[in-house]
Amino acid sequence: MAFKEYGDYDGVGLAELVRSKQVTAAELLDEAIARTDALDPTLNAVVVRHDDYARKQIEAGLPQGPFTGVPFLLKDLDLLAGTRTTFGASLYKDFVAPHTGTLAGRFLAAGVTIFGKSASPEFGLMPTTESRLHGPTRNPWNLDHSSGGSSGGAAAAVAARILPVAHASDGGGSIRIPASACGVFGLKPTRARNPIGPDRGEGWGGFACGHVVSISVRDSAAMLDALHGPEPSSPYVAPPPERPFAEEVGREPGRLRIAFTDRSTYGDAIDPEVAAAVRDTARLLEGLGHHVEQRAPVLPADPAQVIATIVACNTGLAVQLAEQTLGRAMTERDFEVLTLASAANARKASGVDYCAAQLAAFQISRALAEFFTSIDVFLSPTLCTLPLRIGEINTMAHDLSGISPTLRRYIPGTSLFNMSGQPSMSVPLAWSASGLPIGLMFAGRFGDEATLLRLAAQLERERPWKTRRPPVYAST
């Protein structure tokens, strides 16, 4: 089948075609598979394939949900019983999931057909997707550049229209970073909005959460309706929404109080094109009737040090569990140099160091909460430079000293809202002179995805991005 209009539809739109019997779920799956076969040798976005799993879903009968029949990819960090999940690590290249994660189960209940897993860096540690096991995932707007990370495979696949919506997760920016790099929409929900079990109650000390990247705001909202809510093991829950999230799309946001900054979290100057995009967006918001002022929060601690400690300790645990299971020390045959170095740093840290990092995260969260008492939304750059070039971060280098300065320059602000648990989104509103996307990051108050979704839908109407096509684009 050649369904050339497939790339014009978002997930909600494709599901409506299935419901109205204009197309079948099997035909949509065939289209997604054909597009993957055509483009993935170039992009390397889909690193685990299980087409037969998706076909068996259809044969068994799909549940009636908001995305029934829509082809879908899980990120290669989540479990789907009977399918491979590699975590981007050589040690797990043949690992088969013994059970299905709670979030994956909710995706299935929404009606999607899961035909594979999208690329992630090893354990999702880096803001670029270039694992040793699978190789680099390339940006469909420019193949010399990274698709971002850690949900780089998902964002590249969505940008290239292999599919309209895909699973993504975010512990320090990993939904918003690749959404910005690839020119798609990415919302990180409020802490505990979506489930993370059953194997753990929280990820990265409460920083991590799962959701999607998408070509439309309404896909993100509709999927949030399908996913949100606690599970039996949830250690805490997010405030309940006032109404379904899908009903916020198209609802007028009102006159919002919006603060913005065109500098980095540390007050540093950023890439001129990115800074110009922030200022241009601020003018757009003012023209839409919002109250806009240039103002940024003052932070009581260094977020880079906080997340480095939290992530190192969690990585150290992952390595330790592998060593306990196999009864031997992990080596570079098993994990990348960066992973082993992070685990080694964790062994040097004390329990007091970890608690100090948690306290600093709380202090940052408190400062942000106070900042938001006088505003509704904060606008800042998602990335402070254009997307990294492939190879700019090398997780197999024995000298890793250049990585921290690169991260400070590239993504100084995304992790703030993982620490505070606030919802935050990257909206594709600008492109560089060289044709690379520039995402703008908006954060809202804790529990207030509604305001962000209303604002995003307003911006989507004013500056639609769905019709923009990267040079590497699927059209069978």
UniProtKB/TrEMBL annotation:
Name any one Pfam family assigned in the record: Amidase
Keyword Thylakoid belongs to the record? no
The UniProt GO MF terms for this protein read:
hydrolase activity
Which SUPFAM superfamilies does the annotation name? Amidase signature (AS) enzymes (SSF75304)
The answer to whether UniProt assigns keyword Transcription to this entry is no
**Which family, according to the similarity comment?**
Belongs to the amidase family.
Q: Return the protein name.
A: Indoleacetamide hydrolase
